[in-house]
Amino acid sequence: MSDKKWDLVALASIPVIMTLGNSMLIPILPQIERELKVSSFKVSMLITVYAVVAILLIPLAGYLSDRFGRKAVIIPSLVIAAAGGAVAGIAAWFMSGNIAYWTILGGRFLQGVGAAGAFPIVIPLVGDMFKNEDEVSKSLGIIETSNTFGKVLSPILGAALAVWLWYSPFLAIPVLCLISLVLVVFLVKTPKRKEKPPTFSEFVASIRDVLKVKGRWLYALFAIGGICMFLIFGVLYYLSETLESEFALKGVVKGLVLAIPLASLCLASFLAGKWIGKNKSRMKWLGFAGLALVTVSLGVIGMFDNIYVVVGLFTLGSAGIGAALPCLDTLITEGVDKKQRGTITALFSSMRFIGVSLGPPVVSLLIGSHHFLLFGILAASGAVGGLLTLLAVKPEKKGEPTSGSDEKQDDQEKQDEEDKHGYKEKQDGQDKLGKRRVQESETDQGYRPSPLRRKKSPY
């Protein structure tokens, strides 16, 4: 793993930058609304269009990475994301009103296209780079930690940049993407493909077979990932609105408060990635414990309408989500064959983006209702994720996550292999026995005792 530390540094820069590219805008949306003189709904579309485009294109990016290689998809995606940030920044700089708004929205659309082929492809690439499952788990923990670190940094950095110029977060995106692009080009060495890449029809058939055999636990992990993101961004939206409307906290100060639970998420992701190793049973139970922790935290928050209780307990619950995320990444990555890894992990990333997209609007609809109802629904969502982890994800003793049908197939394959191996040993034994008998037979036939020859008597 030490010989690939610079590869990991370069890859870890991608989720940080992709997260910053979206989340930096959250604390400055009211300022953008005032500057462009548009409605709050139109401003919210700057976040929504980014996520929706990524959701739609992530599966396609996964297939292309399986077909043409991970790096061949990541590099153009970073270029597209940089172009999108540049378009948005230049439009905000030189234009105004509706013209500026629609041009910025187009730039955000391009950013979403780039995001679809960047961070989601990092996860299968890490799985390809390492053969040892323990190294894969630790590396994915680092990648997930960098993702959460981007979430911690984004509200602070976005608010700080906007103090200088309100559109400077847009202009920062191409600079950040360029840094990541240089790191990936020069530091990341992808393993050579030994097998021929699948055609589209073969790809579709293989994905269908994977989902047919392993669909039970894969669908569960997809849903759990979406639930985790739904809870994080839903509560963050609640905190952002409450801190500004009730406590008049704005700018960097509000960003620092929002960073507290995200810092807990980041630290828990890092520690969980180092601890789980290649033990998939441990991944399951740690993921379940994390979701149980966030469920209990949200349930207790619902009983106390106090901002200090909300921040404190959500910090604890964020640690639970942070512990679960590396487990989900590793179970997905190690649970499917390399040929389908890019697309399966891309589907998982799509579900996470769906959670990101649903969290703020759902909470915005519930925020005017009773406090207990809002957090009761969030706690129920966490409980669903915990039950899915407990009931649907069933690692075998050797560590492979599987459903009941998958267990049968694995057992059958194992039995077939043992039968084949036993048959081969039996055949080898018979061959050796036959050769020995032939040798003995040849020896028996070839051995003739020489007749006793007597010397002639001289008399």
Describe the model:
The protein has 459 residues and is an all-alpha fold. The protein has a single domain, classed as MFS general substrate transporter like domains (Growth Hormone, Chain: A). It is built from 15 helices and 2 strands. The chain has helices at 5-23, 29-36, 40-68, 70-94, 97-116, 119-129, 133-164, 168-187, 200-247, 251-276, 280-301, 307-335, 338-366, 371-392, 404-446, and strands spanning 394-395, 401-402. Strand 1 (394-395) and strand 2 (401-402) form a beta hairpin. The chain is globular and about 55 Å long.
Characteristics:
MFS transporter, ACDE family, multidrug resistance protein, 15 helices, 2 strands, 83% helix, two-stranded antiparallel sheet, Growth Hormone, Chain: A, 459 residues, single chain, transmembrane, mainly alpha, disordered C terminus
Q: What is the structure about, briefly put?
A:
With 459 residues, the protein is mainly α.
Count of folded domains: 1
Structural class: mainly alpha
**What does the main sheet amount to?**
2 strands, antiparallel
Helix content: over 70%
- What sequence of helices (H) and strands (E) makes up the elements? HHHHHHHHHHHHHHEEH
